[in-house]
Design goal:
mainly alpha; 336 residues; 9 helices; ABC transporter transmembrane region fold; two-stranded antiparallel sheet
């Protein structure tokens, strides 16, 4: 019953953080305008204003961590309890092998995959909503501060209204498209790597259980071989994951480094001809980076989305197998 209050609280915290960020954007303008005009009184005023804004920002960040992790904990408790009750009830874990499906290493899916399946969506959903609100709010800042820009092609002049908004949209589209193209195989690679890790864990557990016996059991050498084979698969999948992450990191880091530079380049002509003050230039460049980060939510969260998708698929496969066990039981009771 506490899910709705927590969700509403997280939204309110996110909106409050956005309001502080919006005010800091204008503080950035006023501070640099005072600096450019060598206004000592203005600088002191801005320093006094900054202190409560910084304190409020830090306090809201701490509250956001509490709300987010509490929601994740309660959601994980609900999902893991449901899976464990079904898995343990009437020893269903013993009957899983009798039904078809991808349910291997159920203990790994219950522990690790259920964790990821409930942890990631809270962060992703909150981040997506915040990014949408941020983009909407700071696009207005870019539109008002940047204004229009006239581009001359010989004798032809074309006026581009809200040119900074157009620029950030094109910039974000380029990097989002690049991330989708380069990282398209990442979810499948992560799923295979998780499966390999689970198989290695299962093989090690089998050896540990065999070691509890007083003498070597038949097939123990085979268990050792399976463990080494599982390790080999882990290393292969890890190498594949490494190559995928290298590609996505190339895109994300290029995006982070180039965004402020592109903003400065776009603002420079208006600043040089006196149509934009130093404070407005810094405000516009900060708003440009903020909007591109919001637009590039997919770029920044592509790996997390892939992890979540892999975990959800593995948990869903286990739940489907347990449902099949329950169905077989009902049919058996009905026929008797």
């Amino acid at each position: 019953m506490s899910s709705w209050p927590l969700t509403i609280g997280l939204l309110l915290i996110g909106i409050s953080q956005l309001a502080v960020q919006y005010r800091l954007n204008y503080w950035n303008r006023d501070f640099f305008n005072a600096l450019a005009s060598r206004d000592g009184t203005g600088l002191l005023t801005q320093a006094v204003i900054f202190v409560p804004l910084a304190g409020l920002s830090v306090g809201l960040s701490v509250a956001s961590v509490w709300g987010r992790m509490t929601t994740q904990r309660k959601w994980r408790q609900w999902l893991t309890t449901h899976i464990l009750e079904t898995w343990l009830s009437e020893e269903h874990y013993r009957r899983l092998e009798s039904v078809p499906g991808e349910y291997q290493n159920a203990e790994y899916r219950i522990s690790v995959d259920a964790h990821t399946a409930t942890d990631a969506p809270v962060d992703l959903a909150l981040g997506f909503v915040t990014s949408a609100l941020t983009a909407f709010l700071f696009i207005a800042v870019l539109w008002n501060v940047g204004g229009s820009f006239t581009v001359a092609f010989g004798r032809i002049e074309i006026m581009v209204p809200g040119y900074l908004v157009v620029g950030v949209g094109i910039y974000a589209l380029v990097f989002t498209s690049a991330m989708i193209a380069i990282g398209r195989r990442l979810p499948a690679v992560i799923q295979l790597e998780n499966q390999a890790e689970a198989e290695l864990l299962a093989a090690a557990n089998q050896i540990r259980e065999a070691g509890k016996r007083t003498r070597a059991a038949d097939g123990e050498i085979e268990k050792h071989r399976l463990a080494w084979d599982a390790l080999g698969q882990v290393l292969v999948r890890w190498r594949q994951l490494c190559w995928q992450l290298m590609g996505t990191t190339l895109v994300s880091q290029t995006d982070v480094l180039f965004a402020p530079v592109v903003a400065w380049v776009l603002c420079a002509p208006k600043y040089l001809n006196g149509a934009m003050t130093l404070g407005e230039l810094t405000q516009a460049s900060a708003a440009f980076v903020t909007v591109q980060v919001a637009f590039n939510w997919l770029v920044d969260n592509y790996q997390r989305l892939s992890d979540w998708r892999s975990a959800v698929n593995r948990v869903a496969a286990l739940l489907l197998a347990l449902d099949e066990v329950l169905l077989v039981e009902r049919e058996g009771r009905g026929s008797s």
